[in-house]
Write a structure and sequence with these properties.
The complex is a heterodimer. By secondary structure, chain A is α+β, with helices and mostly antiparallel strands. Chain A is built from 20 helices and 15 strands. The chains are: A alpha+beta, B mainly alpha.
Chain lengths: 436, 304
């Protein structure tokens, strides 16, 4: 035993030295931390490795965060002063982090950038990153909602072209409805989705909120009309409203022709390609949303995610270099290939010919007419109230007038703090809520 | 004599007391730091409107007194959540106790073979991860292909949209929760049953008591303290219903499975209304406290 001890100690010490050599900084490289969510967090590593090769003085540590925990983790990191230098934010989350004063304004950097140009982004998408005339995020990938439909079912019903107006849309649904057996539906609208009524309302010119986003505007005529139209989808039996009629698996139902149309987003291009059987692959198509006012396509919502820089970062220059790299057209094309996410750069769309591809060209058309949702931290909460009340109306537990009045009341209560803050700012010295 | 002896006695007592505090101090300080501190902080928070704005700038924190509590009492969603929770406690609790007792009697019975096997099988759901269980139960509850509806079909009952129908979602959650948890109570009740002396049964048999009379006059009274313990623990646990609806339904459909704790979680960690969420947690605390005191009083009265 005694003889063994010394060599063992030697081996151990040697091991420690090797470990130390491994962990010790090899050089004075700058390390930046980057949090990205879900599959983007996994796939982006390929691009950051390329970035590191191009910038040997910068090391990028990518942390993959699950979407379900992202909001909590980011707020906790903010509270604990341990924010990552760079992170991905769903664009409806930006106002919240601006209210926390956690984000670095990017306008001046963008102006002097040799790689990026503001007009290369879709105007509606870029706008979601701008609060009080300041730019806080670079659009990374984009998302919006439009129609996915079964062309063959439409054609059987005598509808040869995707509807471009609400009238044509209603007629198409009536025709499909009269063709099919009662178990099949022209459209599927999930109860827990606030986007369809909100999109319809935006098309009719509703501002959703009123008085500089201080009060709910859901009883206003524009929203009320859109909401009634939305409820009509269920009342006129275009969309399944009874529990038993609602399919559990959207893809199976779409493949079986139980639903002929969906309002959904770009992720389903990939999902449909993978999950639908070969027999229906040739017969599904996408189309921009029908319009209420004759100006096709109709407005849809500007979604997607942006890259933002933490105000706490010690290395703004390397972080900006990585942001430029990831949003530049070449990497955008590569990222689309890796993830299926739609690029935010219009040049990337044209170079990769996504603007003419049969499944994505409808998105290209739709993205020209997208609008930002109210840019306030409370929006997601308000959206969840819209879901709640529309479900109650669909289930006939409330009339739509009652529901919208109750919704306004809830929203006014949610916005109470915001009103208080804005009054303080209006009356007090020149300190601002979001732009300190 | 007492005067002479009392002094040193008191001194040793004080000494012992001091020593006791020294030995207690590690756990006492742990309780202070990790339990009393946070609870006091939460109570303080429940009188403020701590939210995302206050997190960004402490100047935006307002002291609101009892307003959070008053707003809660006016909020129909809170009453809905409270109603759902009571539904779960009142239906699920006794059901769980009855099944646990039945299973415990079965396992303790000498007539049953493979008792060890059954004990393990009944206990298995308790040690299984809830999320994995939830995935399986979602399949069981599938409206068209789920085993639950197929089984109902065999006896000629029309399929039920278990998790999609507001009237059926809570019963579905109760069935799953009872299945998942009854094994734990069963083990405690088995221990209680085994501690009943065999001689009591012998005496009862000599007096001519039948099986049912033995159960009513020997088993039940001897099991009462264990049973009460199990009942209180179950009740407290069931009031804190969270994980089942969180993974199965997210509180839907139409808030039919929204429990108080899930409501608190959503307000606190989804919408970051920490002040409001703290108020919810204190109301829940008060409810559990009152119900537990009632149960204890009931026990004391039945004892005397």
């Amino acid at each position: 035993m005694r003889q063994l001890r010394l060599p063992r100690l030697g081996v151990f010490l040697g091991f420690v030295c090797v470990l130390a050599a491994c962990t010790a900084p090899r050089d004075d490289r700058v390390e930046i931390s980057f949090w990205a969510m879900g599959s983007e967090g996994e796939k982006v590593r390929e691009l950051t490795t390329r970035f590191e090769r191009r910038h040997p003085q910068i090391r990028v540590r990518v942390q993959q965060i699950p979407w379900s925990a992202a909001h909590e983790k980011l707020l906790t990191a903010y509270a604990g002063d341990t924010m990552p230098d760079l992170f991905q934010l769903g664009n409806t989350w930006i106002p919240e982090f601006v209210a926390l004063n956690a984000l670095e304004p990017l306008g001046p950097r963008l102006e002097t950038s040799k790689v990026l140009k503001a007009d290369d982004w879709f105007a509606g998408i870029l706008d979601t990153n701008v609060l009080e005339d300041r730019l806080y995020g670079l659009p990374w990938y984009v998302d919006t909602r439009l129609l996915f439909y079964r062309r063959d079912i439409f054609e059987q019903a005598g509808v040869t072209e995707a509807p471009r107006t609400w009238e044509a849309w209603i007629e198409a649904m009536q025709r499909v409805r009269s063709q099919e057996n009662p178990g099949n539906f022209p459209i599927l609208l999930p109860f827990d989705d606030w986007t369809p009524p909100v999109i319809l309302a935006l098309q009719l010119g509703s501002g959703l909120l009123r008085d500089k986003d201080r009060y709910g505007g859901f009883s206003d005529p524009a929203f009320a009309r859109a909401f009634d139209f939305y409820i009509d989808f269920f009342r006129r039996d275009w969309a399944p409203s009874a529990g038993g009629d609602r399919p559990n698996n959207v893809y199976q139902a779409f493949a079986a022709g139980q639903v002929a149309m969906l309002i959904t987003g770009p992720w389903n291009i990939g999902e449909f390609g993978e999950r639908l059987p070969e027999s229906v692959q040739a017969s599904w198509a996408t189309a921009p949303l029908p319009t209420a006012d004759g100006h096709a396509p109709g407005v849809s919502i500007a979604g997607g995610a942006s890259l933002v820089m933490s105000r706490q970062t010690a290395h703004p220059e390397p972080v900006w270099a990585l942001m430029e790299f990831l949003t530049a057209p070449q990497q955008q094309i590569e990222f689309n290939r890796l993830t299926g996410d739609l690029p935010s750069s219009k040049r990337a769309w044209q170079t990769a010919q996504l603007d003419v591809h049969p499944h994505t060209r409808a998105f290209w058309a739709q993205l020209q007419n997208v609008r930002a949702l109210p840019k306030i931290p409370e929006w997601e909460r308000i959206a969840s109230r819209i879901t709640r009340y529309s479900e109650l109306v669909i289930r006939r537990e409330m009339s739509s007038t009652e529901a919208l009045a109750a919704l306004d009341e809830d929203v006014d209560a949610i916005l109470e703090k915001r009103r208080w803050l804005m009054e303080r700012i209006d009356s007090g010295p020149a300190t601002e809520v979001s732009a300190h | 004599m007492s005067r002479v002896n009392a002094e040193p006695h008191a001194r040793t007592f004080r000494k012992t007391q001091r020593a006791a505090y020294v030995f207690l101090s590690p756990s006492l300080s742990a309780i202070l730091i990790f339990f009393v501190g946070p609870v006091a902080a939460a109570l303080g928070l429940s009188f403020t409107d701590f939210d995302i704005y206050a997190l960004g700038n402490p100047e935006y924190l307002r002291f609101v007194g009892l307003q959070n509590y008053l707003r809660l009492l006016e909020n129909p969603v809170f009453w809905k959540a409270l109603g759902n929770t009571l539904y779960f406690v009142v239906v699920g609790g006794p059901l769980s106790l009855a099944i646990s007792l039945g299973a415990a009697l079965l396992i303790n019975s000498r007539l049953v073979r493979f008792r060890g096997l059954f004990r393990s099988v009944f206990f298995l759901p308790v040690v299984t991860t809830l999320v994995a269980v939830a995935v399986v139960w979602r399949y069981l509850y599938h409206p068209s292909d789920g085993l639950a509806n197929i089984a109902l079909g065999w006896v000629g009952i029309a399929p039920v949209d278990w998790l999609g129908d507001p009237d059926w979602a809570m019963p579905a959650i109760i069935i799953m929760a009872v299945w998942k948890n009854f094994g734990y109570n069963m083990i405690i009740l088995v221990a209680g049953l085994q501690s009943i002396p065999e001689s009591l049964y012998e005496a009862a048999r000599i007096d001519g008591a039948g099986r049912w009379q033995q159960f009513v006059h020997v088993t039940l009274p001897m099991l009462a303290p264990t049973f009460l313990f199990v009942a209180i623990i179950t009740m407290i646990g069931y009031f804190q219903l969270f994980a089942e609806p969180y993974v199965m339904t997210q509180g839907g459909p139409s808030d039919a499975t929204l429990s108080i704790v899930l409501f608190m979680y959503q307000e606190g960690f989804r919408w970051w209304n920490i002040g409001y969420a703290a108020a919810i947690s204190f109301i829940l605390f008060l409810i559990i406290l009152v119900v537990t005191l009632l149960q204890l009083r009931f026990l004391n009265r039945s004892r005397t």
